[in-house]
Each structure stands twice: as C-alpha cells, then as structure tokens.
Amino acid sequence: MTSQQGSESSAASSQHDNGKFNRRPITPAAAQQKIAAYVQPATLEEVKLHEAGGRFLAQSVTAPHPYPHFRRSGMDGYALQAADLAQASSDHIVWLEVIDNIPCGYTPSHEITSGYAARIMTGAMVPDGADVVVMLEMTELRTEHGRTWVGIKRQVEQGKNITPIGLEVQEGDLLLQQGAQIGAGEISVLATFGVHTVPVYRKPRVAIFSTGTELLGVEEPIAPGKIRNSNSLMLAQQIAAAGGEPILLGAIEDKLELARTMMMNALEHYDLVVSSGGVSVGDYDIMGDLVRSGEVEMLFNKISMRPGSVTTGAVKDGKLLFALSGNPGACFVGCELLVRPTIRQMMGSQHDYLPQWQAELGREYVKINSFTRYVRGRLEMENGRLIAYPALLDESNVMVTIKDSDCLIVIPPTSEPLAAGTIVQILRLMDR
Amino acid sequence: MTSQQGSESSAASSQHDNGKFNRRPITPAAAQQKIAAYVQPATLEEVKLHEAGGRFLAQSVTAPHPYPHFRRSGMDGYALQAADLAQASSDHIVWLEVIDNIPCGYTPSHEITSGYAARIMTGAMVPDGADVVVMLEMTELRTEHGRTWVGIKRQVEQGKNITPIGLEVQEGDLLLQQGAQIGAGEISVLATFGVHTVPVYRKPRVAIFSTGTELLGVEEPIAPGKIRNSNSLMLAQQIAAAGGEPILLGAIEDKLELARTMMMNALEHYDLVVSSGGVSVGDYDIMGDLVRSGEVEMLFNKISMRPGSVTTGAVKDGKLLFALSGNPGACFVGCELLVRPTIRQMMGSQHDYLPQWQAELGREYVKINSFTRYVRGRLEMENGRLIAYPALLDESNVMVTIKDSDCLIVIPPTSEPLAAGTIVQILRLMDR
C-alpha cells in the first residue's frame, strides 16, 4: 500500500525491508501440525489415584482380575437350587431349610445342596451349589425347634439374581487406554481394580509474560494511556484449565533486551513459554524482532486466522514458545487453539484439540475475510436444534465478550455474509 | 409380594412393619427442591483473582471506570485532523508536520492542531485535537532540516481507527453478576478493571464415607466376597469437580453404632456429609435405620428414579446429609443430581443443576419403568444432529460405563420401549 513514489527514508518502506509486512501466513491446521511435530512429552510421575483427577494415563491399564470376581447376589433373599422349586406354585409352598446367613463381605460357610437354602444379602457371595437367588419379598419363614425353613411358592429361572464372575470385565481386559483423561468414572474403575497409584505425565510448567510499556499491574491505579495486564491472568486460567501449571513472570516494557532476557530465562527454566503482546506490525514488535534475530527457530509468524493473525510460534532446544497477540480476544483464541493442545499433548492426551461440533448460526454474520475467523459464541439448545450465537462485539480487542462464550464459531474465508440458520462448525470451549 | 398366608414371624413382614418397604417416593425435582430449601450459603472469603478460577462471585461487580478509559488508537499510524485531508487525492499529497511520537503506554506531549500530526502506535492514547488515525501503510515520510512531515493522498473519515472512551464499558456498568462463575473471560474482565481480589463463598468441606462390611481399601489385595471401596474416591472426584473440598473418612462395617458415630462426627466437623451404601432394603440398611431413628430430620428416603431410588436425604442442625446407594452407577447419578447442585448453591452459583439439552436417542431403549431413568450416555454430533447413545450396560451396579459417559439421558416413566430417533432430554455431565 505504500506509495512507490515515496521517499527512500519512509518508515513504511524500511519496515517492508525488515520483513515485518511480508509475513507468510500458514493455516491454523498447518500451525497446529508444525507445533505437534515439536512437542516433547513431559517426564513421568506416579501419583495417588485420588490426586490424579484431570491427568492423562501414561500407560494402558488391564484388569488384574475379573469383575465381579465372585458370583454376586443381585438381591436380598435366599440362595438355593432352582430345581428344588420345580413343584412350587400358589397351591404348593416348597420349604427349604436355611443353613447359612451370608451378609455382604462374608464368605459362605456351607455349600448348598438340594433341600437347603442360605439367607443372602445384595452384593454378597453366592455359595457353591446354589444357582439362583430368590428375592426376599417372594418368601416366607417358619421357625421350629431352633431350625428355620424358607417357603417359596413360585418357580424361578436358573441364574436369576446372580451376577456371574466376569460379567462386566474379564481378567486381562483393557480397562483404560493410555492417554485417557482421569475423571470420576475412570477413578471408579481404577479403584475397583486396586490401582491406587497411576503413572501420568507431569504437568508442564508454563511461563507466562506480557510485553508492553502500557501495561500496569492488576493492583495498580489506572493512568492515562495505560492498561492493566489482564492477559497474563487470563492465560494463567486457560493454562490451568488445560492441565498446565501456570508461572506468572509479569510484564516487561517494550525493550528488546528485556524481552530477550525474559524469554531466554523462561525457556531455560520452564517447559513451555507463552507471551502476549509485541507481535503486531509496528515499531515495538519486539517478540517478532527476537524471533527474526535467529536466537530461536521460527515455526510461523502469521496464521491465516482472525483474531490473532500475527501469532508467532518458535522452538529452542526442543522447547516451544508462543508469542500471542496482546489483544485480549486474539490472545484468548491463540491460547485455546495452540497452547491448550500443546499442553495436553505434553501430558499424553489423545484428544488434544477443542472438540468440534456443528450448529446453526443464530444470527447473520456479516464480516467477510480472506482468513478463517474464530468468533466467540454462545450455544443454546432450541427445539432440539443447537444454535450458536456469535458475540455482538467481536473485534479482537473487545474483551468483555470472552466471558459469555462457550464456543468459537468457525467462519471460513468467505466473500459473502453468512445468513442466520447456516450450518457452521463450532469448537467447544471446555472451561465453561 | 409377601404371602398374606405367611407366618407372623416372617422376616419380610417384620420389615414391612419397620417401614423399610413402605418408603414413599418423591420425584427427583421434588427432592432437589426440598434440599434447596435447607441449603445454607458458605461463609465469605476474599481470594486473589489468580486463585479464584472456578469460584462464584459473592457480589456483583460494576465498572470503576470506562473502558477504554482513554481514546485509543486502533492502528499504527498518524493521529491528525480529518479536515486537513479534505484536498488529499492521488494527485495531491497533503503534508503535515510530525510533532509528537506516542508509543503505547505514554501520554501525548502536544495537542494536535490543523497542519500537524503525531506518530502513534496501536493501543496508544490519541492526542487531544486529533480526530482520526491514518494507518502507517497509507503514509510516506519526508525529513528536512531535522523536521519531519507525513504525506497522505487520501481522505479518511473522521473517527477512523479511534476507539472512543467507554466503547466497551461505561463507568458504573454491571461487569459481572453475583453468582457468576469465574473463568478465563471473567478474570480478563476483572483484571482489566483492577479487581485483584474477589469476594467468594468458601469451598464447602464435604465429608465422604462408605458403609459395608464387604469393603476393602483400594490398596488392599482382593478377597472372596469383598470389593474395594471405589465409591469414596469417585465421589471425591465428583465433589472436587463441583467445587467442594472432599474429605475422605474411609469405610465402616455394617454396624449401626459405627455409622452413628461416623455420621455425627462428620455432621459436627464438616459442611456437608455424603455416604454411599447402607440404604437398600435389607438387614443392613444402617443409614436408613439411623435416619428413621430420629437423630436427623429425614427429607426423603425414596426418589422415583432409577438408578438410586433408595437415596436418602436428611438434615441436622442446618447441615445436609445425603445417603447415596452403594451401587456405583446409582451413587454417581445421586451425586450429580443432588450433591453437585447443593455444593454449587452453597458456593453461590446461579446455575446449580446439570444443564439440560435435547438430543435424538441413538439406539432403541427397551427398559420400561414407572420411575424416571437417568441412563448414562455419550453425545455425538452427526450431520448437525446431536445424538445421545445410551450405554449398553446400564444396570445400577455396572460401573464400567460411567467413564464413557458425558450425559445422562432422561427416560421418563413409560410403558413402551423408546425407538431410536426419539427426542429425549439429556443432562450434560460437566466434568468431561
């Protein structure tokens, strides 16, 4: 756009020479692939099961025994042989002598043979010989001279109310796949099989800093021309939700030397580095300058997406660095699309990226762009249809709509407005 | 079902007299309402913003200043008066003297008057007098005798690239409502406005214990007739995910005195008590006996739902007690439907219950029941339609399917199987 007739000393031209305007965009998917190729899994640790919630299993787990591992009664009642009830009817009560009482957690004292029964509780171990449990409500009792008989006047099919060994799980069955995220259901399974510690990948320690002379600490009074460093705290929450351990390094002024020191220190001491700010085309594009200086290997410095096209990814000695836009909306999206999957990959997840669904666009979306837009949106279920409403203010620097979003609506490159009702892809935000 | 001709000494009849069979079921919604009437909010505490993730705001927050609080440049370029470009065209470059350079975070040194311009960065404060920012790419520079002029050959509309004061938020606007859950977006907003500590309700301390002589510790070797106490750890994960602080008190044998001591101790020391086991109709229904003994006020001891119909709720001295079924599936559902909302209400949430959506049933569901069934299921998006697949094994004691579920499919009382494709209500599980 700069005039070819302009002076040689034009600031714009000299920036052209720097390559600041000449960034080559790659697609969001290509950026994700480039990153994934450099992800190194975190080291392993063994954690107690009750502290493992949210982590990812580093090894598959198979069943060390069947479940149930004994024949389990599904009812309170009487364990006996079904054949003994062959003649039972409403006119004919069959009486069997009760020779045992088996509460939960006890083992039977007697094998059951024809003519005998054992009182048994729900969940207790069915005695050998018995092939049915008759529910308590179908029985009556008679006691004489210290001996007890149970009376039943119905036939009951063999096997009724007995859960066979291994019904749910056979010994050696795969219980949980490597990479499974550990939630309540996984804990239930692991605890059932006595797996009281689990191997997981460590939580990556993620250094966070912001760049910008305009930045105040969150606790500082507001001042003309200044804004508070909200991005660092927002990123910390996103990184914690992704499973990482956020380390807040604060904010630095727009000075290349400060940025170099901060970045090198962060790359040395932490597993992953995320910065916000200092990537836009301008006089103080310090993260850009740093990456271009060759001290780190640049993976990309432009992505064909809005917001956040000037996002930069780089690697040094196997550690990844993300320089996200300083605009809150762009910073948020960059973290969800790039940083979150990286953290999850480092932790061994098999489901790295935000889950993708389809929904109907809830209102017209008029912005057109040659890049893919990730528009913050809100999902509603209306008459069985999933509707995604784009936020009304969605400029990259509009921060107030982040909180009301539970999805990113993917607007592909288009030259036409999208009508309400159009089917769109949405990425579900998982921290809501 | 017991024969009217049975002996008076029948165990079943004597249990009838105890009221064990005569429980009056209330609906799940009625149970939730009864509980909600007894919930007492936790006490307040002030926490640092970066530690507030997942908590609920105890007070609404309004904006202490507008945002932006200064006229902000949306571009790198030059701030000037739009009227000065009235004659600009591709044939006529307008030259304005550059009298200031305003990086982000600095305040302008000069007011801009006709004939002058200031170099300005994206995000920097627009100087008084200027009413437009012309983007860098539309400009050229000329320097002579230490003075600098910027040349522009287009007209630009007034206001272009300047974000006015208060565009996003006016002073006094409601930023966040009391009860809002604090996620990344909320943190961004609060940090932007300098809210570095927030008032929240304390995390309730939730005592968890299991009852059952059959229970082994998770680390113990398996033994005939025994099972491991998986429910306590599963509940701990569910309670932590709901926002509570789980306190594991372990397992006790089926002895009324032990249960009484455990329950009374738990009610005295913690904010909420959740037990699993000891509620089914049987000889060892100790939690039922305890509640019937009058030491606590019973709210309900049967809910018209499957699994978990024998769930019991009670209150003592304003503290709530939930005695959930010992069956893993029933325990899981009871915690999601009753305990999770209670914890969130204690923490000041405005959205207590699992969010409800509609989906198509992914396969036929044949079980019929006079109670509402909460069937564990998995959501899939197929061709823009949300499909809910019921777990294949969904007996209340089948534990392996919990982990594969991300919703509960609500099957209303019905006497007919539900065909695949039927629209059903689903409750989204939020810990996945």
Task: Provide structural commentary.
Two copies of one chain form a homodimer. Chain A is of the alpha/beta class and 432 residues long. Chain A is built from seven helices and 26 strands. Chain A has a six-stranded mixed beta sheet with strand order 7-4-6-5-9-8, with no helix packed on it. Chain A has a six-stranded mixed beta sheet with strand order 16-13-17-21-20-18, with helices on both faces. In chain A, helix 2 runs parallel beside helix 7 and helix 4 runs parallel beside helix 7. Chain A is elongated and about 100 Å long. Chains A and B meet through helix 1, strand 8, helix 3, strand 15 and helix 4 of A and helix 1, strand 8, helix 3, strand 15 and helix 4 of B. Chains A, B: Keywords: Magnesium, Metal-binding, Molybdenum, Molybdenum cofactor biosynthesis, Transferase. Chains A, B: Its cofactor is Mg(2+). Chains A, B: Its EC number is 2.10.1.1. Chains A, B: Pathway: Cofactor biosynthesis; molybdopterin biosynthesis.
How would you briefly describe this protein structure?
Two copies of one chain form a homodimer. With 432 residues, chain A is of the alpha/beta class.
Derived structural class of chain A: alpha/beta
Overall number of structural domains of chain A: 4
Reported CATH architecture of the largest domain in chain A: 3-Layer(aba) Sandwich
Shape of chain A: elongated
CATH superfamily caption of the largest domain in chain A: MoaB/Mog-like domain
Compute the gyration radius of chain A: what is it?
A: 32 Å
Side-by-side strand order of the widest sheet of chain A: 7-4-6-5-9-8
